[in-house]
């Protein structure tokens, strides 16, 4: 710095002074002011930072408290008891209540055929008649033989009576000596022989009568009769055809089915088989008859499941007086199976699946209670459970992932609008 010229006020003399000390003093005061300002800024920054941190901490505590106290609004649905009867729909097959294949029992030519396919017949009605001339000849011959044997019986009885009369006359004479002992023995043995001859003749007659009974029965088989009321479904013979009456290779003549009652065969799977019993109601539907429902009841069950399919053969009798339900067709069978164990249904969206298995959240006293459930049957939009829930409880639908046991919730019944 340059020295400055100064004037003495008392003497008026000019003198020269130096500016260095004054400049140094100004620098000293400037540094102090700068340091004070920096300190003031630092103090203000620290104060502002501490205040902001305190505010953030307080806000975080408030947010945590609000989060802890926040109860989300959740949709709920009631747990409903399953109905006492379980409808089960299964495929089935219709069959005639009774079916019989009519075979020839006598050998002969078809002399008459009175029925054809589709004819309705009554029990005992004549279906066909066989011409059996050889059998007729055998019957005639054996009837003549029977007459001969009966005559032989009469002759043997007459001889026996004569022998008894001779013995009755000679017996008192034998005591008086008028008849020798030898003659008496002859008379006695003759009586016994004639009595035996009568027995033999009578046995021959009985055997011949039995033979005639068999022949006449075979002759009766030449008349083919309907065993029950029904309809002819097959006809394999015509007039003039030879029918063989052999037991192994007999001619298959007709098939007849009884259609006033139809049997329906259905195989019930194991999960429903334990409730099936005679008397269970059934409805039979045929796709080709959409306007008809055939009512019936279970009449017979196999009482044993098939090991290969784990199904129970079940028969249902359907009254069919008008013949609207034909045998041998596909149908669907709806069984009203009584429920053996109680169960409940809930919406499918109420289920939770995690490492603990299938669970459902129940609202109880404003809090969520998570329970393990066991699904017995999947019904699509609903599921049937038989453990973990009770009728009348309320389950949470689509529970949030943050939901834990004991979480507070605001239940909102299904079908209401969201809360504001």
Automatic annotation (TrEMBL):
Residues 145-206 form the Multidrug resistance protein MdtA-like alpha-helical hairpin domain. This is RND family efflux transporter, MFP subunit. Residues 345-397 form the Multidrug resistance protein MdtA-like C-terminal permuted SH3 domain. Residues 132-166 form a coiled coil. It comes from Bradyrhizobium erythrophlei. InterPro entries: Beta-barrel_RND_2, MdtA-like_BSH, MdtA-like_C, MdtA-like_HH, RND_pump_MFP. Residues 1-26 are annotated as: Disordered. The lineage of its organism: Bacteria, Pseudomonadati, Pseudomonadota, Alphaproteobacteria, Hyphomicrobiales. GO terms for cellular component: efflux pump complex. Pfam families: Beta-barrel_RND_2, BSH_RND, HH_MFP_RND, RND-MFP_C.
